[in-house]
Amino acid sequence: MARSVLRGGVSLFQVSRRIPLLSAPRCYSQSEPEPLTLREQKHGIRRIILNNPKKRNALSLSMLETLRENILTDDGEDLRVIIISAKGPVFSSGHDLKELTSTQGREYHTKVFQTCSEVMTLIQDLPVPVIAMVNGVATAAGCQLVASCDIAVATEKSSFATPGVNVGLFCSTPAVAIGRAVPRKVAMEMLLTGSPMSAHDALLHGLVSKVVPEERLEEETLAIAQRVCQSSRPVVALGKITFQRQMAQGRDAAYATASKVMVDNLALRDGQEGIQAFLEKRKPVWSHKPEKVHD
Predict the structure, then answer these.
(1) Cα→Cα distances 269→115, 238, 264, Å
(2) pLDDT at 31
(3) Strand partners, 237
(4) Cα separations (Å) of 17 from 10, 79, 150, 203?
(5) How far apart are CA 210 and CA 201, in angstroms?
(6) What angle do CA 7, 249, 191 make, to 5 degrees?
(7) What is the distance between the terminal CA atoms of the chain, rounded to a whole angstrom?
(8) pLDDT-derived band of residue 295, with 50, 70 and 90 as boundaries?
(9) Could you tell me which residues are beta bridge partners of residue 18?
């Protein structure tokens, strides 16, 4: 079980306890000696790289389990941002169709989709932002992964699609994330036709946050991550969790939720430090701890 990464507030440990571990994560596939993902962490930024380009970085059960473990692992350093990227010309082609034949059976199929759903909801429930760094094709569950991230930066050569309908498997689970990221009619066109969407159309419809030239992808993505790292950790965590919660509510309930959280934010030591720093025209000195200065 992963240890706590954030000190106080909502931790990765608490998030992981809400999501049952279906089986022990495997870092290697049976047929491929290379690790399915690569992970490194420095200065609070964790890089997770899908590392199975020969299989178009398919989200096999092993890949999903490994991705989940990479997200939850505590490397002994304060985690502030996660960046998910991929090796090769395909960010991810989605599920491995070889795992979805009748040979595997209903129980295995259920395990695949349940694990995938857990990974996607984990990304949104994390108290730290998750950024997709996309350089290439993202289809089906790969497109779902992009839509599930808080921020997505893509190159001009990237494209996005949900082509499951063309092989007799409607992209119903990818539709959960995509339907919450783009307008309904745009989502339905993607789901019903399977036609690819260009990076610029994905930007237009809200599937990605920014489109940049390929040579600037890493620079632009890291700039966003580093900017997040300059803010107070508990303030960012509170803000992300509240955003997800209020987006699932009606307008009046959302305002009630957000108003209460604004008051809670003001009670944080870092909340008061930020205001004092602004009034005194100086840079804030964050404690990065969820301590309160008043009730």
Answers:
(1) 38, 13, 11
(2) 53
(3) none
(4) 11, 18, 22, 35
(5) 11
(6) 100
(7) 33
(8) confident
(9) none
Residue 103: Cβ-neighbour burial (10 angstroms; 0-12, 13-18, 19+): exposed
For residue 26, pLDDT beyond 60: no
Type and span of the H or E element at 154: strand 151-155
Are the CB atoms for 208 and 220 separated by under 8 Å?
A: no
Selection from 242, 221, 237, 234 nearest residue 284 by Cα: 234
Residues with Cβ within 8 Å of 171's Cβ and at least 6 positions away in sequence, in order, are: 94, 140, 141, 143, 144, 162, 163, 164, 165, 178, 191
The residue behind tokens 């608490």 is: 14
* Residue type for position 241: I
The tokens describing 49, both together, are 């790289």
- Distance, CA of 248 to CA of 243 (rounded, Å): 9
pTM exceeds 0.70 for this model: yes
Cα→Cα distances 30→34, 47, 79, 100, 110, Å: 10, 24, 31, 17, 21
d(CA 242, CA 203): 24
Give the containing element (helix H, strand E) for 45.
strand 45-50
Residue-wise pLDDT tens digits, 127-175: 999 999 999 999 999 999 999 999 999 999 999 999 999 999 999 999 9
